[in-house]
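Entry:
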Amino acid sequence: MTNLLDSVQLDPSTAEKLAEQAIGHYGWLLLAAFGALMGKDILVNFIAGLIVYWGSDFENDEVLYISGRQARVIRMGLTSTTFFMSDRKTKMLVPNCQLKQLTVEKQLPQNGGQCYLPKGSEMGAMRVELVGEEGVDSEE
């Protein structure tokens, strides 16, 4: 600072007055720029959190594969999601805005989650009748 003052040939009191006037006059602009940068990050994280939270992509206690490693969803929050990594027995905290950068695989249930799919030769639902033993009424 003294080298700069010597090259411009300003005395320290004049330099102090100039700095005080600049910050006093344009200080609100510096604070507004800082607030805008901080607010942008917070807003992006919050919107990404709402999308993950309201979306039906993940559920708590669901087993996923993140980049080939098995993980379980522990908690989905508005700003971050916590996974339990099974191979290392560690927790991994991921900001929701970075979830789109991960390679996440989800194992789907067999047959779309239905217990039984009828074959093409079967026509509609099958009728099932209970056959009772002799002497026992089967319509009870």
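Residues 2 and 8 are 10 Å apart (CA to CA).
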